Amino acid sequence: MAHDHSNHAVGAHGGPGLGPHLATGAVMAASGAAGRGALGRLFTHPLVMFALGATAGYFAYKYRKEIVDAAMRASEMGKDYVMNTRETLEDLMEEAKESAEGAASGKGPA
Asked: pTM for this one?
């Protein structure tokens, strides 16, 4: 009994299949691994890490007042949002109670 391989690897020989997509994926994976290795080594070098930390510290100190103001504004906006949501929910609950009371008395919703 002979084993037939005529239709087994159609995509690798120019027919419909995954041939071109497979090659493209392999090239992308190889280039990504090479780039990740070089950048990974660069960004994890102790001097680069120290320089990034010093730069971040400098800008955090330089703009500390603006950062605190922005954080306070964000906090106030969050409090306002919670209060508005609470009021809206209370209004909806009150309307639902009125609607339920109206339906129970036979009047129906107003």
From this structure: 0.45
